[in-house]
Amino acid sequence: MESSYTQTFFERGREFLQVDTPIICGAMTWVSDPQLVSAVANAGAFALLAGGNTPVDILERQIKETQELTDKPFGINLITIAPLYKDHLELVRKHNLPFVVFAGSFPRKTEVLKAKATGAKVLCFASTMSIANRMLSYGADALILEGMEAGGHVGHVSLMILLQQVLFKIRDVPIFVAGGIGTGQMCAHLFLMGAAGVQLGTAFAVSDECTAHPNFKKRFIQAKAREAISTPEFDSRLHVVAVRALRNKGYEDFNALQLELMEALDNGTLAQADVQMRVEEFWMGKLRSAVIDGDIEHGSLMAGQSVGLIHEMKPVKAIIQDLLTDMEAEFSRVAKQLKA
Ligand SMILES: Cc1cc2nc3c(=O)[nH]c(=O)nc-3n(C[C@H](O)[C@H](O)[C@H](O)COP(=O)(O)O)c2cc1C
Question: Can you tell me the distance from the alpha carbon of 167 to that of 332, in angstroms, rounded to the nearest whole number?
């Protein structure tokens, strides 16, 4: 039975996402497929299909498959720097997708407006107050604040700071927060701070329904928070966007690639744009090797520091239920403390 606290704190996220539980399973390239997305949607929460670098016909098939597996709403995550991004954006209109999350870099105003013209709600990442204001001026309907604790491509600022810089300042649109979340207790406090919902990635990557290779999931279960480290940038000419992943030989392979690319830039054998392409291709390829082929040595084990909070594999329904139970307990504990 849901408490009045949960009803109060969930109201905004529920209304925006049109789901019972404003918990988002963040898009994960190669991981967020129709099975995972529909499992989360059917469990009453919200999920995103990952556009990534997926060929258009395959992404289109995934959209249709997800629509067959659930009649609940779900969204799509589009990587603005992906080679097929423009074609992916076209699928929003073609398939009447109700939600779009722009990721990678920041979308142009015309792209936000194009998505909105289809009737879709648009969510954008905001890593600073000025980016938040820019995305809102473009027409974003909601924001996602993702701290550097998160898995995958990350910014430089922790969620702790983003909460104070952005969440506490912007009250007129729903804000969803991500990065390092693994417990219902933490979710409760984020709702108390004003979040409309929470977004988790790593926790759902180890769900039973996640079709990632068993080696990938097993490695997550064993990992400690401190093993999920972000990549350094050796040279500012490389424009490396940091990636947080479990440290393995793939991390060293990336460092070797950076040295090779610096030399190529020095010698003029590669242009700036090609260098960035090589960096992005490296991550997409390495993530695929880990998620699909199970290469946990050289593949990329993108994971948030939240990996240290996850100790077992569970069905999606149980992940969500456990978060809800712990959230309820924390709301009651705080309420009692405030009344005392
Ligand atoms: C394996 C993996 C792949 C990811 N790929 C994407 C992606 O394609 N697009 C995106 O916006 N975020 C991506 N993320 C970030 C997640 O959507 C989510 O925001 C993040 O995992 C939250 O932090 P947490 O892992 O600590 O829960 C990825 C994360 C992981 C772990």
Answer: 23
Whether the pTM exceeds 0.85: the reply is yes
Ligand 1 atom closest to 200 (CA): 27
- The CB of 182 under 6 Å from ligand 1? The reply is no
Residues 155 and 51 in one domain: yes
Count CB atoms within 10 A of the CB of residue 134.
15
Scan for tokens 């395959």, then name that residue.
Answer: 58
CATH number of the domain within which 85 lies:
3.20.20.70
Spatial neighbors of 166 by CB under 8 A, at least 6 apart, are 126, 128, 129, 132, 143, 145, 175
Kindly state whether residues 186 and 316 are assigned to the same domain. Answer: yes
Mutational pocket test of ligand 1: of 24, 29, 79, 204, the residue with most ligand atoms within 8 Å of the beta carbon: 29
Q: Write the pLDDT tens digit of every residue in 59-73.
A: 999 999 999 999 999
| 200 part of a folded domain | yes
Give residue 293's pLDDT: 98
Report d(CA 155, CA 230) in Å as an integer.
10
Are 30 and 85 found together in one domain? Answer: yes
Q: Which domain holds residue 144?
A: 4-212+306-334
Residues 247 and 190 in one domain: no
Give 170's contacts (C-beta < 8 A, 6+ positions apart).
132, 136, 143
List C-alpha distances in Å: 130 to 81, 101, 127, 276, 333. Answer: 21, 19, 8, 25, 36
What are the C-alpha distances in Å from 50 to residues 2, 53, 85, 152? 31, 9, 12, 13
Nearest CA to ligand 1 atom 1: 302
Shared-domain flag, residues 198 and 101: yes
Our count of domains for the chain comes to 2
Residues in the chain: 340
If asked whether residues 30 and 154 sit together in one domain, one would say yes
Backbone angles phi, psi at 166, to 5 degrees: -120, -55
* 339, part of any domain: no
pLDDT along the chain (340 residues), means of 10: 93 98 98 98 98 96 98 98 94 96 96 97 95 97 98 96 97 97 98 98 98 98 98 92 96 96 95 89 94 98 98 97 98 94
